[in-house]
Amino acid sequence: MLERIQKYRRDLHQIPELELELPKTQRYLQEALRDLPCSLSSPIPSSVVAFFDAGKKESIAFRSDMDALPVTEATGRAFASRHTGCMHACGHDGHMAMLLEFAYQLSAYYKELPHNVVLIFQPGEETPGGAEPMCKSGIFEQYHIKRIFGFHVWPMLDKGVIATRRNEFMARSSEVNIDITGKSAHAAKYQEGIDAMEIAARYLLDLYTMEQEELSAETYRLLRFGLLKSGTVRNVVSNAARMEGTLRAFQDETYQYMKKRMLELAKPYEEQGAVFSFDINTGYPAVMNDAALVDQVLKLDPNIVLLEKPEMISEDFAHYQRRVPGVFFFLGTGTGIALHAHNFDFDEEALEAGVREYCKLSRME
């Protein structure tokens, strides 16, 4: 098993591609699956779907992302990226290798299963999002998919450890850009201006107070800004400020509440003459693991670790869970190297645990 996994992962690691245009990756997957007893299709460009038909009415699905990142690799590995400025720095090469090896294992027993099996290789997870168009392609209806599973390698867990949790798992995330327009004036006559810098500073603290004090401590959420830019010279009141941050939550009502309050808290400053312009993108929904399905999984494998808290990063696997019950897992690599780092790497032995878990999950009633 390990030899095949290593080959898959290291081959794919050398040909990273971005977003929704992954022709080399798609061809590699198709060639690796071609001789297995499954039918292949491509519901959206660059995707690959492998269908193992056990002659049953319903199917279960397993998903791997395919795309890489615009990162210049610095691992020094013999199988490093051959595409300058592009790297599998988030482990998607490992996810694909796991699903390919699972396909190989599945070939020996899929006809014994109480359902068919669908393997989904999806482009565009990092950006702009491939899961939603995959859902809209009709594959869930075509194959009568009743549940779905997926993994992400996780450097902060020990190698081979599998972890998940009920309900909140990974956050809904939106980028927030706010432009504030005021009026310039000389600092000696600041009363004649509208100080966009001061307004932005006060407004930022208003937002942080709202996020901390108006929502329950038990509600997982985040509103944080990493950029506040204003002013051109020391003795002139700034006429413009820009704030860039992120809004994250799990429940839609929490997300909508914070978004509404952002607009409301701007109004007192607008009454002073400032003009606010908001650009808040939709982002991915929250990854919410089906609690009943998690319980089934834990009965199947009590060694799975239950995480105390969810992660505030996002994943477009969430779109699948809005169609059918699903569970997303973390698979420990034990390296401590951050996702998206230019030196991101891991030992492929960790992936064996993921493949074994896929095989267990495939046998669930």
UniProtKB/TrEMBL annotation:
Keyword terms of this UniProt record: Hydrolase, Manganese, Metal-binding
Cofactor note: The Mn(2+) ion enhances activity.
SUPFAM superfamilies: Bacterial exopeptidase dimerisation domain (SSF55031), Zn-dependent exopeptidases (SSF53187)
One Gene Ontology molecular-function label: metal ion binding
Known cofactor(s): Mn(2+)
Domain Peptidase M20 dimerisation as annotated: residue spans: 175-269
Binding site for Mn(2+): 90, 92, 126, 152, 340
Gene3D superfamilies: 3.30.70.360, Zn peptidases
Pfam family, any one: Peptidase_M20
Highest taxon listed in the record's lineage: Bacteria
UniProt cross-references to InterPro entries, sorted A to Z: Amidohydrolase, Bact_exopeptidase_dim_dom, Peptidase_M20, Peptidase_M20_dimer
Protein name: Amidohydrolase
Native source organism of the sequence: Clostridium innocuum
